[in-house]
């Protein structure tokens, strides 16, 4: 994590697209501002179905995916995406309220890149995103 | 009409007919004689007029008094003596016919009484021998019964049809404790001859029995199923043990109920706490991200800042409210959770490989679908409601079969360090996301509409998704079910410490072993095989339509021809009106005894539950039923049970007896009348009378409920209305 410093002060070199799939608007909004302030372009989805549609319409570089969505499970969405060739490289970060070991394993099982437990430190989230987007 | 009254009417009619016949004969003969001859006859017979007039009167008198004597001293006593002799010889050997009943039959009565005396001596000797023979067995059985009763676990033994043959007092204690705060009409009534499904739902019980059968077929010697379920507000670990009959099939089951301590409640508290955690963490995530964003980016637009501040404010308020609500609500919520899911939501440690192969083998043939199994060689455990997960998978298989007419698919079980996956793989048509989403919100079973596939998955923290991996053959589709493996929990659950050791003896009746569940709709069921609730009520007066009210209900059950003295219902009722002194003299219930008692609309639902599934029996039932009927509207309790009346049945078996009140019938049957006019005591007496009536009805060819009801209708008292 050393070389890809979290630098809220630094300019993020390129505008990468992040899809925030979060059912709760009270988290969606600050997350959106936070990511925008860090130089990312952000699109939102509140349900699993709209997430799949948004991915199709604007393929993102990274998806922040809540594990519990109003219509279906985040794990299922991740699995669906990973089963399609064009989304195999898209970075997927789970946002979860559960901190159990099995939750991480479930995330890994469906092919997610990281799992962050709520409530999270902003720096941790940005670090994770930056690290993942730095990997080719 | 009462037989004796009917006979008296017949006697009067006979006399009138006799008189009419005499007069008609005279008129006829007189009419055939010519007028002159009539004049001549009158002249000749006139000197004998007194004799001629008094002769027919004397003849008529003879007929009148002769027939009356015959009726009162011969016919009726003969019928009465016959009835009483039959009563005496049908097992009531201690009964004696009053020798003064009829001087005519005195020698016969003396003879019958002497014979009865001999029979009584003989019967007492036989009885004593039977008692002696039974004592040893009984002693052992009582020791065993006492041991079972003193167990801290609740024990129920039921036959293969789920009818309760035995239960100890701990079961009652567990049920009573669990149902504190539950509305009375929803409380579970446990009792001999009742179905176990009053405690464990029918489908769940059947499921575990099925599992036991499979295990037995597979030659597994351990015939035990265990799971955890909610009973009311308590978490109970249930074990079902099958016992085999001589023919190596299940003769019945022993069901053990064990209260779990808080320590063992972990899976459930986890579930509950998890829900709380989700809310708290979600709110905190919003608050924290908002604060950090504001602090880290001072240059943020004012409107955005305001929006974030408003989110912080809203979430803080919500969180405070949530915490305040939950501080006092934990247990209430758990209870609610349990009521919603009833008893279905029962977790058990399941060996996936064994469970899956047995389920697919058994159910696959029923679904008429061929299943290839690919199972991980090593078995592992998951904590799940075997029943609900099985139902969910079967539901999906069924849907696939129905939708795509599949006749074959592959079922694969794999495991990783923490997870278990079960894949349903098929070739052919593609299952659309939309259809799959629809299946998820459908109930897993028609009878359990509250359990949708999603709900079951959510409760198990499990996942299910549709996989159409492109690297595979395009035509292959997979439904993947994912569930966590079990933690190594401490299996040694310790029971709670509040169970009182039972002093009253255990309640059992193994005579029910081969009985099935008898539906009340079957009037053809034998009277000896039915279950009854015998009841009596004390009231403020005799006029239900005129405002008299029920002030006490007492009831007792009869199962398998035995009065169950321990399964009673007794309740005083506040009538919300004055009680006439004339009625207090009879029942002795003072108004001050009723002040703090519940009203009838609270009591009747309880009584309804107690009497559920049985035949109602009462003495002069029409009177009691009228009271119940008049309360139907306010209580919304409708007694549809068939009713039998000991008053009418007594008249059926003893039509020549003068009296059919409880005391008289009790006297006839040599039953001890200890205390009258307490509802429960009267119900108890009525129950014993009813049991004595059954063999006498049988002797008259009345064996079934339908026949008994038909015979009742023919009696005089049945025509009376209240």
Rg estimate of chain A, integer Å? 14 Å
Instruction: Report, as a whole number of angstroms, the end-to-end distance of chain B.
Output: 17 Å
N- to C-terminal distance of chain A: 15 Å
Averaged pLDDT of chain A, please?
A: 83
* Strand percent estimate of chain A: 15-25%
Cα-based radius of gyration of chain B, to the nearest Å:
38 Å
Fraction in helix of chain B: 40-55%
* Biggest pleated-sheet summary of chain A: 5 strands, parallel
Give the tally of β-strands of chain B: 18
Notes on the structure:
The complex is a heterodimer of chains A (136) and B (722). Chain A is built from five helices and five strands, in the order E-H-E-H-E-H-E-H-E-H. Chain A has helices spanning 25-37, 48-57, 74-82, 101-109, 122-134, and strands at 17-21, 41-45, 62-66, 91-96, 114-117. Chain A has a five-stranded parallel sheet with strand order 2-1-3-4-5, sandwiched between helices. Chain A is globular, with a radius of gyration of 14 Å. By secondary structure, chain B is of the alpha+beta class. The model of chain B is unreliable at 261-266, 339-344 and 488-505 (pLDDT under 50). The interface between A and B is large, with 35 and 44 residues.
Report a brief summary of the structure.
The complex is a heterodimer of chains A (136) and B (722). Chain A has helices at residues 25-37, 48-57, 74-82, 101-109, 122-134, and strands at 17-21, 41-45, 62-66, 91-96, 114-117.
